[in-house]
Design brief:
The protein has about 300 residues and is mostly helical. Helix content is about 70%, strand content about 0%. It contains 15 helices and two strands. The chain is elongated.
C-alpha cells in the first residue's frame, strides 16, 4: 500500500512534470535564419557552376571564383553548435521524464492487479504453475522417448527425427517408469502397446488442459507422462505427432507468461519472490478457483503487457 501511494503521488505530478520538462528549447533564431540564407546563396552559386559544366562551358573558373570561396567560408562558420546542444539537452530531459512516468504507470498496473489477491494466494498460484510446468516437461520427455520427436516453436529450426522409433534398453525404461508412475513400475513388462496415433490424443488432451486451466491441478493430471508403449509409427503418424507437439509447446507459453506475471506481482508487493512451496495446501486453494476467473486473469495480464 505504501509503494502504491508513492507511485500514485508520482503519477499525480507527471502531467506537470511533462509540461515543464518537455518545453521546446530556446534557440538563436537569428543565427539559424542567417545560416539558411548563406546556405541558399552557396547552393545557388554551386548550381550555376554545375549548369555551366553540363553545357560544356568553363566550369573550373566558376568553382575557383573568389565569391564561391567566400560563401563557403561564411557557411563553414554556421554550425549552430549552441542551439544543437540546447536541443539535445532538452530532448534528453523530456525523454527521461516520459520514461519515468511510463515505468510508474506499468508498476501501478501490476500493483493494482496484485492487490486484488493476498500474498498467500499468489504464492499458491505460483506453486501450482511450477508443478504444472514440471509435469509438462516430463510429459514432453516421455513423448520424445517414445517417438523421437520434440516440439518446435514458430521460427525455430525444424526438428530432425529418425524414420523409426528409437529402441531403448530395459533398464532405461524401468528407471523412467519409477519416476513417472510407481504402480506401473511394479508391473514391468505388462504395459499395453497402443497405436502410434494414440500419442496425438495424449498430446491434445494435455494441450487442452494448459489452454483452459493453466493454473489448476488439471494440467498435472492431463499431462501425466504416458506409461504405454507404441507400435511402429508411420510417416503420417509422425506428421500428426509433430504438429500436436508444436501446438502444445506454443500453448505452454501461457504457463510461462503466467509464471512471470505472478513473480512480478510478488516482487512488486513483497520486494522479493518467494520460492514455490511443495505443500498441498496452496494447491487445494488454487484448484478451488473457477475456470472463468483464471481465464479473465490471463487476459488481463496479456493486455497489461501489450
Amino acid at each position: 500500500a505504501k509503494k502504491m501511494l508513492e507511485i500514485a503521488n508520482f503519477l499525480d505530478g507527471c502531467a506537470a512534470g511533462i509540461k515543464t520538462d518537455c518545453v521546446p528549447p530556446t534557440i538563436n533564431k537569428t543565427e539559424l535564419e542567417l545560416c539558411k540564407t548563406n546556405a541558399v546563396a552557396y547552393n545557388t552559386t554551386v548550381s550555376t557552376c554545375i549548369t555551366m559544366a553540363t553545357q560544356g562551358k568553363d566550369a573550373c573558373s566558376c568553382f575557383q571564383a573568389t565569391a564561391v570561396a567566400d560563401e563557403k567560408k561564411v557557411l563553414t562558420k554556421c554550425k549552430a553548435s549552441s542551439s544543437a546542444k540546447s536541443s539535445a539537452k532538452a530532448r534528453s530531459k523530456c525523454l527521461n521524464t516520459l520514461k519515468y512516468c511510463k515505468a510508474n504507470v506499468t508498476a501501478a498496473g501490476v500493483l493494482q492487479y496484485a492487490c486484488r489477491y493476498s500474498e498467500e494466494e499468489l504464492t499458491a498460484t505460483l506453486t501450482q504453475l511450477t508443478a504444472n510446468s514440471a509435469a509438462f516437461s516430463k510429459f514432453l520427455a516421455k513423448i520424445k522417448s517414445l517417438t523421437g520427436l520434440s516440439g518446435v516453436l514458430p521460427g525455430s529450426t525444424s526438428n530432425r527425427t529418425s524414420r523409426n522409433r528409437a529402441v531403448r534398453n530395459t533398464e532405461e525404461e524401468d528407471a523412467e517408469e519409477d519416476v513417472f508412475d510407481t504402480p506401473q513400475a511394479r508391473m514391468r513388462g505388462k504395459r499395453e502397446e497402443v497405436a502410434c496415433s494414440t500419442v496425438v490424443t495424449s498430446i491434445t488432451t494435455c494441450t487442452t488442459a494448459i489452454t483452459n486451466t493453466p493454473a489448476l491441478t488439471t494440467v498435472v493430471t492431463k499431462c501425466k507422462a504416458p506409461t504405454y508403449t507404441i507400435a511402429t509409427c508411420t510417416d503420417a503418424d509422425k506428421t500428426g505427432i509433430q504438429a500436436a507437439l508444436n501446438t502444445a509447446l506454443e500453448k505452454n507459453a501461457i504457463i510461462l507468461a503466467f509464471l512471470d506475471a505472478i513473480k512480478a506481482e510478488l516482487t512488486a508487493t513483497t520486494g522479493s519472490t518467494p520460492s514455490p512451496s511443495d505443500g498441498t495446501a496452496g494447491t487445494a486453494r488454487v484448484a478451488a478457483r473457477s475456470r472463468s476467473l483464471l481465464r479473465k486473469m490471463i487476459m488481463e495480464k496479456m493486455q497489461l503487457r501489450n
